[in-house]
Write a structure and sequence with these properties.
Layout (H helix, E strand, L loop, with lengths): L10 H14 L12 H8 L3 H14 L2 E4 L3 E4 L3 H25 L4 H12 L2
Length: about 120
């Protein structure tokens, strides 16, 4: 995946969101080892301090943990991962419905369009 970071929001928060997405989608599975700060910073084209700040935020949330001998790993608490996945999905749904409302669609019309699209 390419790192699409923009300057309209703090870079570290965009990195947090991306790594969260990678964890909840299964790209990084529970208990798996994450690449080092330097590796990810190089891949993303950001300063290692920025990546470290993102990792610290993920650690505070409990989504990743630091193992003294093996670096950082994804939490093995699958319930936490599922809760974050639902939270992220809820945000996406809310934003989608708000945009559809701005286009003039009522909820039932949006649902009908989704059902039509499902038949394609």
């Amino acid at each position: 995946m390419s790192w699409k970071l923009n300057s309209d929001r703090p870079i570290y928060s965009q990195i947090v969101e991306r790594i969260q997405m990678q964890i909840v989608s299964g790209f990084y599975s529970p208990g798996s080892r994450l690449p080092s700060v330097r590796e990810l910073a190089t891949d993303a084209g950001v300063n290692p301090n920025t990546m470290q700040k993102a990792f610290a935020e993920l650690e505070r949330s409990g989504l990743i943990v630091t193992q003294r001998t093996s670096g950082r790993t994804v939490t093995e608490e699958t319930e936490m991962i599922e809760n974050i996945q639902k939270e992220l999905a809820t945000i996406q749904i809310k934003e989608f419905l708000e945009r559809m409302n701005e286009l003039g669609f009522k909820l039932n019309e949006t649902i009908a369009l989704l059902k039509e699209g499902d038949q394609l």
